[in-house]
């Protein structure tokens, strides 16, 4: 009995180790490529342990640091503002929807749900944001379109509020004289840290990784975020390598594109903050995943 | 009930608060742009140097490889110049090549102000069909005589090549409007092994050269791909690809009879050559899948040569891109097809606020030496210095990477032949280029632009088949004797004949209308 339990542990651990290894390997390759001498990389390709270690890629990033640092601070700023704002608004929509007494509750819930399935399409969305809200080439373009409110998160939170906050608590607070606002931020929110952390992390990742808004709404390089900068460089490379027809011009431009190690180094510095932040969120995250489970 | 009302009120409040936040932001932006505009208008009125012309702001949109740091400074200089000459200010809007297709489409589909825009880059006929570009004939006659003269002095065929249904919607920049073909090699190695460049007259003469390299430099790949394969660009020296290459004109003539390139004996012959090279080890084993550019490969010392399209002055250009001294052998004559001309052009967008003034600006781009040099090279003594009257170089302490304005895209901004010559290039380069353009073989179908709308599905299907076979065949990775017939069979199944028939129909109609 005990022996089989031990064997079981061993197998589980080995499977997990192998799995972890496969998760870490691509990262390791990314880091090692960013540390490889660029000409070495062309000559002998990617290797897990480069023959010749070179910090030239990081050196290059440091030298062009004004761009990178600005992009970095834009990313950090949009992530912080976006997450805070997104979380606040999501909670403020989700909570009323979770209360049965709320008028038009189902209509509103359907409205939220509807946005999960359908949207206006790219061109109308673009026209709305650029012509009517004047978001083009502003920081808001990185925060609002497509990211700020997410139907899925609202429904996730509503489910949590409805199932994990007993109505009795809300009623007792009401009897004690608390008004809706007070109930919301003194009773409901403190009880909801798991879901707040979960959705907060989702928002953080969404904002941190977003490049699409930048691609669509920005022509001014002043507002490029890190992922956007990286994405543009990769797209430029792709463009230069494809298209033969209009492409007789392409060769003339290729010289300005950073080489592979620089791209890897950018990806590396782009991913580090999230790797660092993740463990701090993790304990909430685990709790958050059990949202919806029946509690005693 | 009371409670319900309260909740509803709260919700309403939240919605209102949110709306206010949004509209406040919106207003803020509006105010700031308004203030900006007011400032400009006021400025314009005080400095009213060009008579009755009202001040306007013109938006110029073009693709770049990366936005230069000093773009705003250059823009300010440009504005001083345009203010004095046509009482207009110019806003430069560069868009990265990667984002170009997406952002251009969005900008043109809304009513955002775009005055001058680079058209072409493969989407000219679609953009015209969508009605996004203005017809230019009238504007050219009125305010753009400089453009017409500059282009017609080369050959009237060039401007006519842009006509769609008899009308001009875009004007090509003056650059290399034709291409010849050949091989570019490492100069040091050519000299070291006494390679006789004069003896190279065709692809088959290259075997000797590659053998020498292979025997003496075992670590080096004798030739690498350019574009997507070894032959990708080179086939254009035999065929006018009439757009996308499904249905071509052999020898740029063939009495306007469209054929399937992949069935021609010339193509099969080229594939055999490449296959032989691959078997002998003159081509890297991973050539079909490698994504490294030819420049990086040569720069790192791994590759010896590449076969490509060319123009006068190609050697210095490729030497710069690879960081090694290169030598080029041109062994296929220069030819011009529609795509050589329509690949980079300037148009006035439908969204233009003032098309007449946009044309004036375009006219400056073809006639005003100072304006062109500003766009091409930046500000004198800051981004370049004059070495002699017409030859320029980096200022002391500045190089290609540290320069604040180093687009190197003179081929895009209007009339390149009026720009300075970069140190190292032949001082006679622009004259050579003009001769090159004049003397190039003009395709019999020059000016024909294929409208692929009717055969869209076939094109998608045929492209899929092409993606599957073309690169493997043209890098010699697979045996053409077995695979080429298979490729052609698949192309037929996917509907290439229908595309060719449609193309032939349009070409005949075009030829008839031209007479």
Describe the structure.
The complex is a heterodimer of chains A (296) and B (515). Chain A contains 14 helices and no strands. Chain A has helices spanning 2-34, 38-44, 56-63, 65-98, 105-117, 122-132, 140-143, 151-164, 167-175, 180-191, 193-209, 212-217, 226-241, 260-289. Chain A starts with a helix and ends in a 7-residue tail after the last helix. The model of chain A is unreliable at 243-256 and 292-296 (pLDDT under 50). Classes of the chains: A mainly alpha (296), B alpha/beta (515). At the A-B interface, helix 2, helix 4, helix 6 and helix 13 of A face helix 1, strand 2, helix 3, helix 11 and helix 12 of B.
Helix and strand topology:
The complex is a heterodimer of chains A (296) and B (515).
Chain A: H1 2-34, H2 38-44, H3 56-63, H4 65-98, H5 105-117, H6 122-132, H7 140-143, H8 151-164, H9 167-175, H10 180-191, H11 193-209, H12 212-217, H13 226-241, H14 260-289
Helix pairs in contact in A: 1-14, 3-14, 4-8, 4-11, 4-13, 5-8, 9-10, 11-14, 13-14
Chain B: H1 2-46, E1 56-64, H2 71-86, E2 88-96, H3 97-109, E3 116-120, H4 124-129, H5 137-143, H6 145-152, H7 156-160, E4 163-164, E5 167-168, E6 171-172, E7 179-186, H8 187-192, H9 206-216, E8 221-224, E9 239-240, E10 249-250, H10 265-280, H11 294-299, E11 303-310, H12 314-322, E12 326-336, H13 338-342, E13 344-348, H14 355-367, H15 369-377, E14 385-386, E15 391-393, E16 421-422, H16 429-439, E17 441-442, H17 456-474, H18 480-494, H19 496-514
Parallel strand pairs in B: 1-2, 1-3, 8-11, 12-17, 15-16
Antiparallel strand pairs in B: 3-13, 4-5, 6-13, 7-11, 7-12, 9-10, 14-15
Helix pairs in contact in B: 5-6, 5-14, 6-14, 17-18
């Amino acid at each position: 009995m005990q022996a089989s339990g031990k064997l079981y542990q061993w197998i589980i651990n080995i499977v997990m180790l192998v799995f972890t290894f496969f998760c870490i390997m691509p990262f390791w390759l990314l880091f090692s490529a960013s540390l490889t001498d660029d000409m070495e990389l062309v000559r002998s390709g990617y290797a897990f342990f480069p023959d010749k270690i070179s910090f030239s890629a990081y050196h290059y990033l440091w030298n062009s640091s004004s761009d990178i640092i600005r992009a970095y601070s834009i990313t950090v700023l949009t992530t912080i503002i976006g997450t805070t704002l997104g979380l606040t608004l999501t909670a403020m929509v989700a909570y009323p929807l979770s209360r049965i007494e709320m008028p038009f509750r189902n209509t509103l819930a359907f409205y939220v749900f509807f946005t999960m399935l359908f949207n206006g399409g790219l061109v109308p969305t673009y026209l709305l944001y650029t012509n009517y809200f004047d978001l083009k080439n502003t920081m808001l373009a990185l925060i609002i379109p497509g990211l700020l409110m997410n139907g899925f998160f609202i429904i996730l939170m509503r489910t949590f509020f409805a199932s994990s906050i007993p109505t009795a608590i809300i009623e007792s607070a009401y009897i004690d004289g608390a008004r809706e606002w007070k109930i919301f931020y003194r009773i409901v929110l403190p009880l909801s840290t798991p879901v707040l952390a979960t959705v907060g992390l989702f928002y953080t990742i969404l904002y941190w990784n977003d490049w699409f808004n930048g691609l669509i709404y920005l022509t001014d390089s002043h507002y490029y975020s890190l992922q956007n900068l990286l994405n543009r460089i990769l797209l430029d490379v792709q463009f230069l390598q494809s298209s033969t027809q209009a492409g007789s011009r392409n060769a003339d431009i290729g010289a300005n594109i950073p080489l592979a190690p620089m791209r890897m180094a950018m990806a590396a510095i782009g991913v580090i903050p999230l790797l660092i932040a993740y463990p701090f969120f993790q304990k909430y995250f685990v709790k958050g995943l059990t949202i919806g489970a029946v509690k005693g | 009930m009371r409670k319900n009302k309260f909740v509803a009120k709260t919700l309403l409040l939240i919605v209102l608060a949110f709306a206010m936040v949004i509209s406040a932001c919106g207003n803020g932006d509006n105010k700031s742009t308004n203030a900006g505009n007011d400032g400009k208008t006021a400025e314009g009125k005080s400095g009213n140097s060009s008579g009755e012309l009202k001040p306007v702001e013109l938006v110029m949109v073009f693709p770049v490889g990366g936005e230069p740091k000093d773009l705003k400074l250059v823009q300010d200089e440009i504005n001083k110049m345009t203010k004095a000459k046509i009482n207009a200010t110019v806003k430069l809007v560069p868009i990265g090549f990667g984002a170009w297709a997406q952002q251009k489409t969005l900008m043109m589909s809304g009513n955002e102000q775009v005055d001058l825009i680079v058209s072409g880059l493969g989407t000219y006929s679609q953009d015209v069909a969508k009605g996004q570009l203005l017809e230019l004939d009238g504007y050219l006659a009125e305010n753009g005589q400089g453009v017409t003269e500059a282009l017609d002095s080369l050959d009237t065929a060039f401007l006519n090549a842009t006509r769609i249904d008899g009308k001009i919607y875009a004007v090509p920049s003056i650059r290399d409007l034709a291409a010849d073909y050949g091989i570019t090699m490492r100069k040091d190695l050519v000299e070291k092994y006494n390679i006789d460049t004069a003896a190279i007259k065709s692809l088959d003469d290259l075997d000797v050269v590659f053998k020498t390299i292979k025997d003496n430099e075992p670590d080096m790949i004798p030739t690498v791909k350019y574009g997507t394969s070894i032959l990708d660009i080179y086939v254009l020296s035999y065929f006018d690809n009439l757009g996308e290459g499904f249905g071509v004109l052999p020898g740029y003539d063939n009495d306007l009879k469209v054929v399937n390139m992949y069935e021609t004996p010339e193509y099969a012959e080229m594939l055999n050559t490449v296959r032989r090279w691959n078997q002998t080890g003159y081509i890297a084993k991973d050539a079909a899948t490698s994504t490294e550019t030819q420049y990086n490969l040569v720069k790192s010392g791994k590759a010896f040569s590449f076969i490509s399209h060319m123009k006068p002055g190609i050697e210095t250009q490729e030497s710069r891109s690879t960081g090694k001294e290169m030598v080029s052998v041109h062994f296929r004559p220069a030819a011009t097809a529609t795509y050589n001309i329509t690949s980079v052009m300037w148009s006035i967008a439908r969204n233009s606020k003032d098309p007449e003034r946009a044309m004036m600006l375009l006219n400056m781009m073809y006639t005003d030496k100072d304006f062109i040099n500003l766009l091409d090279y930046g500000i004198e003594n800051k981004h370049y210095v004059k070495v002699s009257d017409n030859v320029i170089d980096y200022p002391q302490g500045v190089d290609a990477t540290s320069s604040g304005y180093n687009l190197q895209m003179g081929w895009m901004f209007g009339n390149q032949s009026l720009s300075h010559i970069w140190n190292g290039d032949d001082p006679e380069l622009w004259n050579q280029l003009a001769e090159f353009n004049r003397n190039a073989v003009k395709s019999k179908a020059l000016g024909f632009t294929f409208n692929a709308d009717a055969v869209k599905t076939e094109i998608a299907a045929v492209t899929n088949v092409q993606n599957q076979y073309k690169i493997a065949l043209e890098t010699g990775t697979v045996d053409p004797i077995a695979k080429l017939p298979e490729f052609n069979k698949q192309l037929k199944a996917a509907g290439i004949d229908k595309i060719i028939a449609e193309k032939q129909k349009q070409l005949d109609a075009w030829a008839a209308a031209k007479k």
